Amino acid sequence: MAIIGYARVSTIDQDLTLQKNALKKAGCRKIFSEKQSATKTEGRKELGACLDYLREGDTLIVTRIDRLSRSLRDLQNLVHDLNKSGIYIKTIEQPIDTSNAAGKAFFDMLGVFAEFETNLRRERQLEGVAKAKKDGKYKGRQPTARAKSYEVISLIKDGLTRDAVSKKLDIGIASVYRILKEYQENNPDSPLPGSRSKIKIATLEVSLYIENNSKFVRGKKKAREDIEYEWSRYYQMRKLHSDGQDYLLKVTYETAEELGML
Question: How many structural domains comprise the chain?
Fold first, then answer.
């Protein structure tokens, strides 16, 4: 069970020394490092070598979670794959540790934030879509995950796992759970498709801090309202204080493994 470190900066002008020193202090016996943007995980040779090196039971340590990726969708997929392989992730500057229930629950939120990120990107594309329609160049949207609801339910009834359905239909695992949740709400007398164990509920206390570092980004209030809306779509959510940053979320799951994959 090795402790492996990964350090990254975005440009060749930046220094990796501080990250490497922090990783050594955290007990990393081997450190992979590179100077490359983290917009996507693809094309990052040292990250690929690091992932190939890791084995079941190992722990991957980074100083901050964005050292792995700045794309929420890529980060969600990376964490999911490591979780399936029995590899843990810890961060030095943030309270993240997937070897315990709280850490796994944290990554349960990644799917929600990934969709939130997608929705923001979609907003920015609306003007371009409108112009394309006006010019007669718009070819239409690709089918959304919701349009695949029937396929999701059918595959679950056929015995496929939620993870397998997500990969087969090329949709996010959070979308699979949302579709199953809606099915259950519309069919309260029917068991959840594919269920083989009792549904459990994890109660999480979450703090949400929003920073606005760019004049081009919309206000904090709007961002918080959008995130609260996305949370409420998937979980039972209660704000602990009307003007505070702390929330109570209730997450449904069947097994500890699924809690880590949500």
Answer: 2
Helix axes 173-186, 162-169, angle to 10 degrees: 110
Query: Which regions in the chain score pLDDT beneath 70?
Result: 38-41, 107-108, 110-124, 127-133, 135-146, 188-200, 212-219, 234, 252-262
Question: What are the pLDDT digits (tens) for 166-197?
Answer: 888 888 777 787 788 777 777 766 666 555 44
Residue 58's domain comprises 3-98
* 54 in the same domain as 124: no
Which of 10, 85, 99, 232 is labelled catalytic?
10
Spatial distance between the Cα atoms of 177 and 194, rounded to a whole number of angstroms? 12
Is there a catalytic annotation at residue 10? yes
What is the distance between the terminal CA atoms of the chain, rounded to a whole angstrom?
25
